[in-house]
Amino acid sequence: MRRDIGNLRAGALRGLFLCLAVALSGPLAAQEGRSVETRFATGMMSASYSDAITGYESVNYFLQARAGQIMAVAFSASNLSAYFNVWGPGADTALFAGAAAGDRFTGVLPESGRYRIQVYLMRNAARRGETARYRLDLRVSDAPPAADYADGLAGGPDWWVVRDLPPRDRLNLRAGPGTGFGVLGKIPEGAALRNLGCRMSGNSRWCEVETPGGGLRGWVSGRYLREGAAPPQLHLRPGGETEIRFADGCTLLFSPAGKQVAAGASCTPDHFARAARAVAPEGRAQGQ
Fold first, then answer.
1. Which of UniProt's keywords are assigned here (predicted)?
2. 190, 229 in Cβ contact below 8 A?
3. Do 103 and 76 contact (CB within 8 A), yes or no?
4. How many structural domains comprise the chain?
5. Does 185 map to a domain?
6. Which domain holds residue 111?
7. Which among 26, 42, 79, 141 is least buried, having the fewest CB atoms inside 10 angstroms?
8. Domain final residue pick, 112, 141, 170
9. pTM for this one?
10. In degrees rounded to 5, what are phi and psi of residue 8?
11. Do 158 and 207 share a domain, yes or no?
């Protein structure tokens, strides 16, 4: 009898420890939530919020919306471990999970009710007591977003720039929207890509892109794409020098060996960096 009771106690303790281990291993750290009721100004269907969270804090933004409306959310933060999720009315599963899908959401809402946008830190950052300053832009409309954005999840700017890759890593360009498709090429940090539209594949956002010269076309993970500017135009002079022209008027000149020899007065350090990438052998191969 005592042995049976001991076995029951041991089993109960093992079950308790297992539950604790599962609870502590999940990625979502948010426990201490603040709530914000989203209010749109008269005649407006958008709002912007700037705030900060530390440790296990989270902020929940609530808003009423109708089925068929289009919700667009854009998020930027000072801490790479900060993300947002979108939850439907009374839902147990997130409609959009930023940790897997990136920092932008655009989609047609499936039902009417009270939606929740949750901002939080991943558990590893929360445990260290890290802070994230962030900006959250929300928009709800009855029609597709502005003309330079495609409908629904095919949204985004005309050009992307590759950002936040792990050190010395490159972004896989795949034959289709998912990791099960073959790799067509590898895109470096800072590269410009023409946006051809995005879609969800499982819980991940994938975008069809093309290199500026049209040499490569395929699909990349949306979490490494940020809104970018059109790449500069390259003009090869008869003497072998390369002239780099930006749309805002900045012009730079590079020697045949790839060294900068002249720059216009309006050029900035960002122009210099983008021009250097464009004249590098890799940049030329991609048409940048």
1. Signal
2. no
3. yes
4. 3
5. yes
6. 32-141
7. 42
8. 141
9. 0.44
10. -60, -45
11. yes
